[in-house]
Design goal:
16% strand
Length: 854
């Protein structure tokens, strides 16, 4: 039977290839994801290992909020006194020690705008002569900076943005733009690219001055004397450390920073793998449908094998062997296609502003094993049902005409199994979105429930196909003449087959609709929140819309004639009641530029905060049982504890984004408690409101701040939504892979039905149907199938979005009618594209051979 299966497979190479494509694409996504994320992890690991390769111990700041120093601006660990360096150098086990500054500084291009590539960090370092052993950078050209007005920049930025040694370049650190002379360009060895990151290198004294860290260091790197072990070195250093500092071995520090990035990359990997899983799930529908049709067409062949003595087990083994071969070969192709897809994914991410470091390609054993295993297992599972049906072909079928498999045992139960599956899926999803279970359990319930819901709808679909096809096929019948009428009838001829083909497309369209509806709700709620809260004339944000900006920019605006209110909102992390919270700093006149609804307190509350007052959100007050007059202790990154009293409770917009953090304090107190305080937003009111003259005056005051962007309310809304739109477009692109897989399912079905209807098509040609009419008939069938997929998928996507919306307490559930119409049009176009090859194949059938075909 094995030889029979393999020979049969070789005799159906085209059909086997079309079946395999669905698995190839899904496995390629899985393989490409692993290759991409492993390569990026390797790049980060190489970076951190190289930074500390000659360092036996490294002293860094300790953030009380993060538990350890954080990488984000809001949780950045505090610097410590530079006097610690001389104490460390005097230790008996220390051979050399060097202090340094590591911060953020943006470079300014020739166009006067900051150089920013997709939100990648603008890294800044100090250079200390004589401490080259600790320096991970190397000169690409020129020299290291040696004076207060000198800087070295990364070679990539110099090349891409047209800078060379000797030129002047603007740098934005803590205040207005400052100008430096480029003395050299640097590169980081060991990796092919640092992604979109920029680098600037200053002398230690200059770095301390521009980052307001005079007499302080961010790190001290230490090399031990020969024979001094790591444990001994750390034991000597620890007694010298203030509470705001900590020490690790160089290897441990590199591993810690690698683990920090790996945590993000693992989330990123799971995000991409989810789309590979969707593609494979859709592919399983394609495989099951294709094999069901193929087995139906092989009824006489299978029956003949039974008459010759083959048992049901042998028939089952034969079909499963075919599936194993197809799955294995497809997985191998997909595995290596993943190498190309990894580069494509990286280019896609770069185009969406996600530019991460790169190293030499990593092709891990785990990638090979998982990709092959997933591809083969999905193929075998998808084949199991049609394979079991093949065993029920009676020997008597060898002398019958037609290609119909016996009905399944579940067929006699009618729609009840499908309805039970749908109900079970909905119940699981409701448990996931409404229960108080752990996050992992809830996500599992939602995922399993979603899969069950898709399967249930797919099981019910055959009963819905005839009435839906009758309606959706009406335009084809009305305007497509005989070809359209035949296409409509053909779509209803085998409802199970049509439903299975449409179900593959249903999944992709349902997920696209789900994303679109959620995004529309987010957009509607955000716009409503901004309209409700934003009562200022202008807003000032960073050029990338989300980074904090210097307080000096707000001070520059305050001096403009006609300015009545300049109110900045600062933000940082803190700790209260043993958990992380968001702390905001607000001006006394914030109520004049941001509308706030008060549950306790009133518009005068921000002006009454002083040095020990705070106001909190309604939800935080409820969760922590706070009311006006309640004491509240907040710990900040430096370790200082703020003893506060609650003086107000405000109500954020329903379902919208809160304008302030969990706890808000005065800007004066915030600036005392947080190092490097910066504004997230600055709101401005001017006499006369928004006018061209006022805009010009404000922009003139901001000429020294190329990282700042002045915006009106409408511009603010548009710019803040750009991030959502980028994410939405990225999701659409990734989900398109599942739609491509489903298109191959339509192609498969049409090609196989053309093969099955060879005599029928020959008869139609013989009675006068032209080749053009045959092509038109196949196209109509494809479009009707695609519209059925849209009819199943789009409502299902809306329901899924509604369920998730309930879970996240949407105040504005919005159905984007225009977007859904676009999806329907896209489905029609997809149907037309899928019909190109089958229609040409059908039209090119030889009439005489078709009439003789059995």
């Amino acid at each position: 039977m094995a030889s029979v299966a393999l020979k049969g497979l070789l005799g159906r190479k085209a059909r086997a290839t079309l079946t395999a494509i669905a698995i190839v694409l899904g496995v390629a996504m899985v393989s490409g994801t692993y290759i991409l994320t492993d390569t990026i992890k390797s790049a980060f690991s190489t970076v951190f290992t190289r930074v500390y390769r000659n360092t036996d111990a490294v002293i860094t700041g300790r953030s009380a909020v993060a538990g350890e120093e954080g990488n984000e601006e809001r949780t950045r660990a505090p610097s410590f006194s530079a006097s610690l360096l001389s104490q460390v150098q005097a230790l008996p086990g220390v051979a050399q020690a060097s202090g340094g500054i590591a911060d953020r500084a943006q470079l300014v291009g020739h166009n006067g705008k900051v150089i920013s590539r997709g939100g990648a960090p603008a890294l800044a370092f100090s250079y200390q002569p004589g401490a080259e052993r600790f320096n991970p950078l190397s000169l690409a050209s020129g020299n290291w900076p040696g004076g207060p007005d000198q800087v070295a920049i990364d070679a990539s930025t110099a090349s891409k943005d047209g800078f060379s040694v000797g030129q002047r370049i603007g740098v934005v650190a803590r205040g207005p733009e400052q100008y430096f002379t480029i003395t050299g360009t640097v590169k980081f060895g060991g990796v092919s690219s640092l992604g979109g990151a920029t680098m600037s290198v200053f002398t230690t004294a200059t770095a301390q001055q521009i980052f307001n860290k005079q007499g302080r260091f961010d790190t001290i790197q230490v090399a031990a004397k020969s024979g001094v072990g790591a444990r001994q070195l750390l034991a000597e250093i620890r007694p010298l450390l203030p509470p705001s500092a900590q020490v690790r071995t160089g290897q441990a520090q590199a591993q810690k920073q690698t683990n920090n990035t790996n945590g993000f990359l693992n989330i990123f990997k799971d995000f991409l793998l989810a789309f590979g899983g969707v593609a494979l799930f859709v592919g399983s529908f394609v495989i099951a449908n294709t094999l069901s049709i193929t087995i139906a067409q092989r009824t006489r062949e299978l029956a003949t094998l039974r008459t010759l003595g083959a048992t049901r087990r042998q028939v089952l083994g034969s079909v499963m062997l075919e599936a194993l071969v197809i799955g294995l070969l497809a997985s191998l192709v997909g595995l290596f296609l993943g190498l190309a897809l990894a580069k494509g994914l990286n280019s896609l991410l770069v185009s969406f502003g996600i530019d991460l470091p790169q190293a030499s390609t990593v092709f891990a054993t785990r990638t090979v094993v998982v990709s092959l295993l997933v591809g083969v297992v999905i193929t075998l599972l998808a084949t199991l049902r049609p394979a079991l049906r093949s065993t029920r072909v009676p020997p008597l079928a060898a002398v019958r005409e037609g290609a119909v498999l016996p009905p399944t045992r579940l067929a006699r139960l009618g729609a009840y199994p499908a309805l039970a599956t749908i109900a079970g899926g909905l119940a699981l999803m409701l448990v996931g979105v409404l229960s108080g279970l752990s996050t992992g359990t809830r996500l599992l319930a939602i995922g399993v429930g979603g899969v069950a819901l898709f399967l249930g709808v797919a099981m019910l679909a055959p009963r819905l196909v005839p009435p839906l096809a009758r309606v959706l096929g009406w335009p084809a019948q009305r305007f497509g003449a005989a070809a359209g009428s035949l296409a409509r009838a053909n779509s209803m001829r085998n409802p199970a087959r049509t439903a299975s083909t449409a179900s593959a497309l249903m999944i992709g369209l349902a997920l696209v609709t789900f994303v679109g509806v959620l995004a529309a709700g987010l957009r509607t709620r955000f716009e409503a929140s901004v309209n409700e809260l934003f009562i200022a004339n202008y807003a000032l944000t960073a050029s990338n819309n989300f980074s904090p900006i210097s307080i000096a920019s707000a001070k520059a605006i305050a001096s403009v004639p006609g300015v009545e209110v300049v109110s900045g909102v600062r933000s940082g992390d803190g700790r209260a009641f043993h958990s992380r919270i968001t702390v905001t700093g607000v001006s006394a006149d914030v109520g004049r530029v941001i509308s706030t609804k008060w549950q306790a307190g009133g518009p005068q509350t921000p002006a009454l905060l002083g040095s020990d007052g705070a106001f909190v959100t309604k939800d935080y007050a409820k969760a922590k049982h706070l009311r006006t007059g309640s004491p509240l202790t907040v710990e900040v990154p430096s370790g200082a504890r703020l003893a506060l009293t609650v003086r107000g409770i405000y109500k954020p917009p329903e379902g919208g984004t809160a304008q302030f953090g969990d706890v808000s304090i005065s800007t004066t107190r915030f600036d005392q408690a947080y190092s490097n305080p910066q504004n997230v937003y600055t709101f401005i009111d001017m006499a006369g409101g928004v006018t061209a003259a006022n805009t010009r005056s404000l922009q003139a005051a901001l000429r020294g701040f190329p990282d700042a962007k002045l915006q009106t309310k409408s511009q603010f809304k548009h710019n803040q939504l750009q991030g959502l739109n980028l994410l939405l477009n990225l999701l659409y692109v990734l989900l398109s892979l599942s739609i491509v897989v489903s298109l191959f399912g339509i192609v498969n079905t049409l090609v196989l039905t053309v093969f099955e209807r060879t005599r029928e098509l020959g008869m139609l040609r013989a009675v006068g149907m032209t080749r053009r009419q045959v092509r038109r008939m196949i196209r109509h069938e494809s479009v009707i199938t695609a519209l059925l997929g849209a009819a199943f998928g789009i409502p299902l996507g809306v329901v899924l979005a509604l369920l998730v919306g309930i879970a996240i307490k949407y105040a504005a559930f919005t159905v984007p009618v225009g977007t859904l119409v676009v999806f329907v049009v896209a489905a029609i176009i997809a149907g037309l594209v899928a019909a190109i090859f089958p229609a040409r194949r059908a039209a090119r059938l030889d009439v005489l051979r078709a009439l003789q075909y059995e």
